[in-house]
Amino acid sequence: MMQVVANGVALGAILFLMAAGLSLLLGAMGVLNLAHGAVYMIGAYVTWMLTVDQGLSLVLAVLAAGAVCGVVGLGLERLFRIIPGKPNEQILLSFGLIYVLANVAQWIWGPVAKAPFQVSWLEGALTIGNVSIPTARLAIAAVGFALAVLLWVVQDRTRVGAIVRAGMDDAEMTRSLGINLDRVVVAVFVLGSAVAGIAGGMGGLVLGASSSQPMDVLLLALVVVVVGGVGSVPGTLVAAVVIGLLDAFSRHQFPEMASVVLYLLMALVLMIRPSGLSGRTA
């Protein structure tokens, strides 16, 4: 059971890194960027290439993946800027980008999925009593929670975070005060994409990299955003850990119903509290 908990917490950390950027983007600029899952995939592939093919250290590879995905996010922001406030068009653009980026990934790295990365200094496990927790999963959880604290500080304790929160509440009033909200939105887009790239790099330790990841990871990230609440870092973290644990337990006890359990949780939250655990009400 402790092994299942460790797996759930590690998955929760990956889901948080993936969903945090998506949640902030949707809250800050009202953009439903479903191509965020493709950014995660790029981070996983870049990290795999740099560690396995080039022999670069995992830390440098993950940072490089975050930088590459930040640049990709900058390009995506320019595309989504063309259709602000148009969710139907944003969804169509997102799915188009998912297919384009997935096919580009197949062209560059091939159609065969890449196995989880093997990093020598993260081999082995931490043994507590009769329970062995893989060191790689502990590293994923540590990175996830460290970035959660960093994002919370940026959102709640900095001027940029105050502008983002103000933009969530009333973008027009924020702009009327002379604040360049568009520049902040670009920064949030790049930051969210970089975090997704880091999530892909760290997630590759246990999930590898494949062109099917944009949809696989995105569905879980959307559940996290709905349950946690749009634009809330603490809510996203709590929801990610809860969903990671629930997914791990359900796959262990009744694997054929694992996905159903997650979507039932999302439906229940929508019925009881549509804004999510910590989301802002209209």
User: What is the 3D form?
Assistant: globular
Integer-rounded radius of gyration: 18 Å
Low-confidence stretches: none
**Binned strand content:** under 5%
Strand order, main sheet: write it out: 1-2
Total number of strands:
2
Structural class: mainly alpha
Element string (H = helix, E = strand): HHHHEEHHHHHHH
Termini separation: 40 Å
Q: Please, how many helices? A: 11
Mean pLDDT: 84
Which helices and strands, and how do they pair?
Blueprint: H1 2-29, H2 36-53, H3 58-80, H4 87-109, E1 125-128, E2 131-134, H5 135-157, H6 159-169, H7 171-176, H8 181-207, H9 213-228, H10 233-253, H11 258-272
Helix pairs in contact: 1-5, 1-8, 1-9, 1-10, 2-3, 2-4, 2-8, 2-9, 3-8, 5-6, 5-8, 6-8, 9-10, 9-11, 10-11
Would you write up a description of this structure?
- The protein has about 280 residues and is an all-alpha fold.
- It has a domain at about 15-210.
- About 75% of the residues lie in helices and about 5% in strands.
- The protein contains 11 helices and 2 strands.
- The protein has helices at about 1-30, 35-55, 60-80, 85-110, 135-155, 160-170, 170-175, 180-205, 215-230, 235-255, 260-270; strands spanning about 125-130, 130-135.
- A two-stranded antiparallel sheet has the order 1-2.
- Strand 1 (about 125-130) and strand 2 form a beta hairpin.
- Helix 3 crosses helix 8 (about 180-205) and helix 9 crosses helix 10 (about 235-255).
- The longest helix is centred in the N-terminal third of the chain and has 28 residues, at about 1-30.
- The N and C termini lie far apart (about 40 Å).
- The model has no long low-confidence stretch (mean pLDDT about 85).
